[in-house]
Design a protein that fits this description.
5 strands, 28% strand, 4 helices, 134 residues, alpha/beta, Transcription Regulator spoIIAA
Length: 134
C-alpha cells in the first residue's frame, strides 16, 4: 500500500507551496511592471485573499499590472469579479492585462465576455511584450 505524498493532486492533497486555502499569489516586479501570478483555485473562498494581495501590491503604484492565471486550476465568477473590479479601479493610472489560456481559465472568461472588457494574453511573454511603460 502506498502512502499519499504532499503535493500529489491525485490523492487530493494540495501542493504545500499553495497554502491552506489551495490558493497563492506571488508578486514580481520588472521595473514598474507588476506581475501577480496566482495559483490554485480562485473562487468565493479565495477571492478575498486575491483582492488583498492585489491591493497590497498596488500601493507601489505600478505602471502596468499583469495578472498571470497560468497556474490557476479553477476560476469561479468571484475571481472574475475581482479582475473586473481591479481593472475598473486602476484603468486611469495603469495598464491592465490578464494571462489566461486553457479550458479552466480562458474558457470561462470568454464565455462570460470578459475577453471584450479585459486585455487577455495566452502567455506571460506576450503580455510583457505588449506592455508599454512610459
Amino acid at each position: 500500500m502506498s502512502e499519499p505524498t504532499a503535493g500529489n493532486p491525485s490523492h487530493g492533497i494540495p501542493d504545500p507551496e499553495i497554502g491552506a486555502t489551495g490558493f497563492a499569489v506571488a508578486a514580481t516586479w520588472h521595473g514598474t511592471v507588476l506581475i501577480l501570478a496566482a495559483s490554485g483555485t480562485l473562487d468565493m473562498a479565495t477571492a478575498p485573499q486575491f483582492t488583498e494581495s492585489i491591493e497590497d501590491s498596488l500601493t507601489n503604484e505600478p505602471a502596468v499590472v499583469i495578472i498571470d492565471l497560468t497556474d490557476v486550476e479553477f476560476l469561479a465568477s468571484a475571481g472574475m469579479t475581482v479582475l473586473l473590479t481591479v481593472h475598473e479601479r486602476i484603468r486611469e493610472s495603469a495598464q491592465f492585462a490578464v494571462v489566461a489560456d486553457g479550458p479552466s481559465v480562458a474558457r470561462p472568461m470568454h464565455l462570460v465576455g470578459l475577453d471584450k472588457l479585459l486585455t487577455i494574453h495566452t502567455t506571460l511573454d506576450a503580455a510583457l511584450e505588449a506592455a508599454t511603460v512610459t
